[in-house]
Amino acid sequence: MAKPVLTISSKNYGAWALRGWLMCRLAGLDFSEKIIPPDDPAMKAEMLLLSSSMLVPSLQHGGVKVWDTLAIGEYLNEIKPKSGLLPVDIQARAHCRAICGEMHSGFASMRGALPMNIKARFRGFKIWSRAQADIDRIVAIWRECLKTYGGPFLFGKQPGIADAMYAPVVTRFLSYDVPLDSVCAAYCKRVMDLPAMQEWVAAAKEEPEEIDELDAEF
């Protein structure tokens, strides 16, 4: 079987690309990357927040092609069941799927007001009320999960699909100087300290400084 290929967009701006890529890394999948150029319509759609489930990211694994981020996670859990992407306990697994679905389909105000931009730092960034409501819900999810499952990650001792789904939010909170309590700040640090996240961030910092179509969004 040929080596799996994950098609992704910008590592600096691509929130959905990061989710799919991080899931593959956490699953222990040996894959190669195909990065689409900045002028590709699929990349523009992802970057400009027009869709959470365009064809980016997409995973080609043998004769199987999976392109929605949650579908990628579920597929990886099936082919790598020992990787722990989803909790073993049925109740925890249902809870995990619920908060991942909430991230997948919600928080539009936060995503629009605080676009992912790993290289940027906006000190004292003013957050409008609707985006703040999304942020409040996200940190409530984190606190509940960390308390219920004991941490250090959302569903226990190892990172999984839920952590991958919320990883771009972690980068946003850092980029836009979002105030966090000690519990959530510590969780953000744990996510950013993951070797895979450090690899992603290092690559993001090597990207070109400007993508013209994105500048207007900030």
UniProtKB/TrEMBL annotation:
<dbReference type="Pfam" id="PF13409">
    <property type="entry name" value="GST_N_2"/>
</dbReference>
<dbReference type="GO" id="GO:0006749">
    <property type="term" value="P:glutathione metabolic process"/>
</dbReference>
<keyword id="KW-0808">Transferase</keyword>
<dbReference type="InterPro" id="IPR004045">
    <property type="entry name" value="Glutathione_S-Trfase_N"/>
</dbReference>
<dbReference type="GO" id="GO:0016034">
    <property type="term" value="F:maleylacetoacetate isomerase activity"/>
</dbReference>
<dbReference type="InterPro" id="IPR036282">
    <property type="entry name" value="Glutathione-S-Trfase_C_sf"/>
</dbReference>
<dbReference type="GO" id="GO:0006559">
    <property type="term" value="P:L-phenylalanine catabolic process"/>
</dbReference>
<dbReference type="GO" id="GO:0004364">
    <property type="term" value="F:glutathione transferase activity"/>
</dbReference>
<feature type="domain" description="GST N-terminal">
    <location>
        <begin position="4"/>
        <end position="84"/>
    </location>
</feature>
<protein>
    <submittedName>
        <fullName>Glutathione S-transferase</fullName>
        <ecNumber>2.5.1.18</ecNumber>
    </submittedName>
</protein>
<dbReference type="Pfam" id="PF13410">
    <property type="entry name" value="GST_C_2"/>
</dbReference>
<dbReference type="InterPro" id="IPR036249">
    <property type="entry name" value="Thioredoxin-like_sf"/>
</dbReference>
